[in-house]
Amino acid sequence: MVSGTIFQYKKSSWPPQDYISRATLELLDSDSAAPPKQAWRRKLNSHASILKEFSVTFMEAIKMVRLGIRLWSYVREEASQGRKAPIDPFTRESCKPSASQGVPLGGMGSGSICRGFRGEFRNFQIVPGTCDTSPIMANQFSIFISRDGGRKKYASVLSPGKHENLGESSYEGLSSWGWNLSGQHSTYHALFPRAWTVYDGEPDPELKVSCRQISPFIPHNYQDSSLPTTVFVYTLVNTGKERAKVSLLFTWANSIGGISHLSGDHVNEPFKAEDGVSGVLLHHKTSKGNHPVTFAVAACETQNVSVTVLPSFGLSEGSSPTAKAMWGKMAQDGYFDRDDFDAGPSMPSSPGETRCAAISASAWVEPHGKCTMAFALAWSSPKVKFNKGKSYHRRYTRYYGTSERAASNLVHDALTNYKRWEEDIERWQNPILNDDRLPEWYKFTLFNELYFLVSGGTVWIDSALPDARLSSDHPQRKTLKYRNDVVVENIKSYGSDSNIENSSTGDVESSHTGCSDEDGSVISQGEQKDDYIQYPSHENKSDDVGRFLYLEGVEYIMWCTYDVHFYASFALLELFPKIELSIQREFAKAVLFEDKRKVKFLSEGNWGIRKVKGAVPHDLGTHDPWHEMNAYNIHDTSKWKDLNPKFVLQVYRDFSATGDFSFGTDVWPAVCAAMEYMEQFDRDNDCLIENDGFPDQTYDAWTVHGVSAYCGCLWLAALQATAAMALQLGDNISAEKYKRKFLKAKSVLETKLWNGSYFNYDSGSSSNSKSIQADQLAGQWYTASSALPNLFDDLKIQSSLQKIYDFNVMKVRGGRMGAVNGMHPNGKVDDCCMQSREVWTGVTYAVAATMIYAGMEEQAFTTAEGIFYAGWSEDGFGYAFQTPEGWTMDGHFRSLTYMRPLSIWGMQWALSLPKVILDAPRVNIMDRIQLSPQSSRPHHAETGVKNIAEKAKCFSNSVFRCAC
C-alpha cells in the first residue's frame, strides 16, 4: 500500500491554467464543460511528428535471415488466400504513424474509431483485424458565427491548418472549406473515456467553445460499455456585447476507412427520432464479403437549438450538391432546408464517388450567455465476420437487435443518457483523481492507457438467445446444437456442459459460440445440419457476458495473446471481472483438447501440430478464433516454458480476487493438466523446469539456457499457487504434492541463480547469462498480487529490485525511459538481441508494481514515470494513445498500440488490493498444508478432481466431466 507521505516530483501535473486562461476556465466551469485538473494535454497547433520505427542491427539481420525468408513466403501465401498474416513486418501503412492520436470513440468490442487531438477522425477498426490509419478528411466539425446583423462573420473547420491529404483527388472540394483555425489558442485535454477540446477565442475572439467527447466505457456496466456510440457536447459562451448566431456543422463520409468510400453502392437516409433527436443514416456496403455497416450522425433539437440536415453531398464537381455548395449554404444561412428531412434514401453511390452527410445545429447566444449543443455518432455492424467464414452477432445486438436502423436508436439513447454516463465515469475515477498521495502524471496515464480496450481491435460477441423484450426486427437466432447421440449421452452421464471434441480435428466448440455459416444457420464446425437437439448453456444468466477478444496489438493480429494477457489482464480484472473470468474459462477449455492439424514453425522450418493437449495456447487464433488457435507460428509454443505457469497464476489470482468458488472448481482440472504437462521440462528431476536453448517464452528473440530467472520464478509461483488453490478446493493430495515440489524447486533455483545481489538471467555459460533482467521477479509480482507468501525472503526481493532500479532504470537516461529489459553487471545494456536492448512499456509497469509490494514506492513511481516521460510527455517520443510494445535507447518504437501497457493497472492493483484479499485470513496458507511422511500412495490429481466435483455438486458450468 502507498504510504501517506509519498515523494515529490519536479513536474507532477499539467495545470489547465497553463494552457487555458483562468477566465475561460471559470466561464466553462459548469455542466462538466471545463477540462479536469488531471488530464493529458496538447495545444492544437502542436507539431505531430512522424514516429520512428526500430531497425535490427546487421548481426541481428544475419541471424534472422532464414526466418525472414520463411516469414516472407508465409505472408505471401496468406495474401494469396485473401488473408493478412498475423505478423507481417514487410507491409507498411501508406499513412506514416505520427504523434497525433487522442481518445478513441465508442465502447468495447463493436469496432472503434480514433479522434486525434487535432480533431481528425482516423484509425478505423470496424472490420476485425484491420486498421485504416489515414484520416477521413471529410469527417469534421465546423463552426459558423454571425454577429452585428451579419456584418461580422466567422467560418472555420475546427481542425487546425490545411492537411496534405486535401490535395488528393478523392478529397477535391474540401479545399474550398474554411481551414482557418490556427490552433494557437485551442487545446485538447484527455482523460479516457472522455476528452475536451477548448477553443479559447478561435475563430471568434469573443466566443469560448468547449467540445466534450463522451464514450460509454463504464466499469462493471456490461451493457452500456458494449455500445458503439459517442457524444460530442458543445458548450458556447458569448463574452461579447452583442448576441451571436452560432451554427455547428458535423460532416461525415460514408466510409469505414481507407478508400472504402469509393467502392460504390452506399446510401444515405435522413431520419427523425423521439426527444428531438434527428440526423442521417449512412448505409455502407462493405467489400470482401464483410457484413454491412450503418453510421448515424445526429443532433438533439431543444427549445433554443434548431437542427437541420443535408442527407447527401459529394466531394467532386459532378456531385449534387457539392462540398463547395454545402459550405457556401452554411456560410450564408447557417442551416439547411427543413424539407431535407423528407428526402428519403439517396440513390446508391457510383464507384469512385464519395457520398457524405451533414447535420447542423444552430442557436442564438445572448451577450454573456451560454448555450449547449449535443451531437452523437454511432455505427452499427451487427455481425462480425472472420476471414475463414464464421460470423457472430456483436454484444450490443442483445440490447438493440440486428436491424440496420439500430444506429438511430443508439444515437438517440446516447443523447438522452450521456449525463448518466458521465456521473458513473466520475464516480469511478474521482477516488483515484482525488488521492493526494499519487503523482498527477500517474492518475491520467492510468486512465488513458485504457484506450487499448477500445482501439486495441476488440471484438465482443453475444452468446445467448436474444432477450424476448427485443423488437421484432431482431431475428431469433438458433443456439448452437450438437449431434443427438453425443449430447444425450453427455447430459445423462454428467449433467454438465462437457467439452465435445471433434474427432477429425480435435476442435472444441462451446454451446455459447453463437457463430453462423453464410446462410445464417448456427452450426458447429464439421457438423451436418440434421438430427440436432438444443445444447444447454453453461453459465448463469447474470454471469453471461458473451465472448471477448482483444488483439495483442494492431501490428500483431492475434486474439487474446496469453503471455501478454498475463500483464494486461489486471485492467480487465479490476474493471470488468466477468470478462476476465470468461477469457480464463476459454483458455481452461483449450488446455484440455488437441488440434492435430499440421503447422510449419518459421523459426526453424520444422513441422508440428497446431495445439498440443495440456499446453496453454499462445493465442485464440486470428482468422477463426476459438476454433483455430495458435495463429503465432514463429516458434512451437507447446515448448514454451511461461504459458502454462502464467495460466495457473492468472487463474489463482482471479479465484482469490473474486472469491468465485464455482470458477475455481470449473478450471481446476485444467490447472492440474497444465502443471503436469510442465513436468516434461524438468529434465533432472529436481522439481525445477529448464529452458531449452531457444527463445521459449514471451521474449521470443532472447535465447535462454538451462534454469532461468524469468521462467523459474514463474514456475515457483505456479507451484505455490497450485498448492494453495488445491487446499482451498479441498484437494489435499494435490496441495501436499505441489508444496513438496515448491520447497525443493525454490532451493534449487536459489542455488543455481542467486548471486548475492540478484538472480542471474540463466544458469548457462553464454555472454549474457549473468545479465540483470528487469522481469526476473514476474512470478513474485503475481504471488504478491494474490496475497500468497513471498517466494523469497524480503532481502533477496528488495536486493534484486534495487539492482534493477539502479542499473536497468537509472543507467538509462537517468530513469526517464523506463526499465531496459537486459543490463550487464558492468552497466552496459545487454545487446545480444533486439529484445534484450529494448525498454518494454508493460514490463516496466509490472516491475513498478512489484516494487510497490516490496515497500519501494519511490523507486516504483520513478520507474513507471520513465514510461510517462518517454511515451506520454510533451518532451517524449509521441506515443500517447498508441503505446508500443517497446522502444530502443534512441526512442524508436516496435509494435504500436500494444496490449501489454495495460499492466499499469497492476500498479493500481498493488495500491488497492480488493477487499476479498485484504479480508483473507492472515495465516500463511502454505503453512496450513501439512506434509505427511512420503508414502507410496498415488498423488495423481484426478482423485482430488473427483472429490471436488462431488463437493461442488456438479456445477452446471463445469469444464470437466464429473461422476457424481
Automatic annotation (TrEMBL):
Residue stretches making up the Glycosyl-hydrolase family 116 catalytic region domain: 546-907
Entry keyword annotation includes Membrane: yes
Feature: compositional bias, Polar residues: 499-514
Domain of life: Eukaryota
E.C. number: 3.2.1.45
GO terms for biological process, alphabetical: carbohydrate metabolic process; glucosylceramide catabolic process
Keyword list, A-Z: Glycosidase, Hydrolase, Lipid metabolism, Membrane
Catalytic class of the enzyme: hydrolase
CC per GO annotation: membrane
Catalytic activity: a beta-D-glucosyl-(1<->1')-N-acylsphing-4-enine + H2O = an N-acylsphing-4-enine + D-glucose
InterPro entries referenced in this protein's UniProt entry, alphabetically: 6-hairpin_glycosidase_sf, 6hp_glycosidase-like_sf, B_Glucosidase_GBA2-typ, GH116_catalytic, GH116_N, Non-lysos_glucosylceramidase
Family: Belongs to the non-lysosomal glucosylceramidase family.
Name assigned to this protein: Non-lysosomal glucosylceramidase
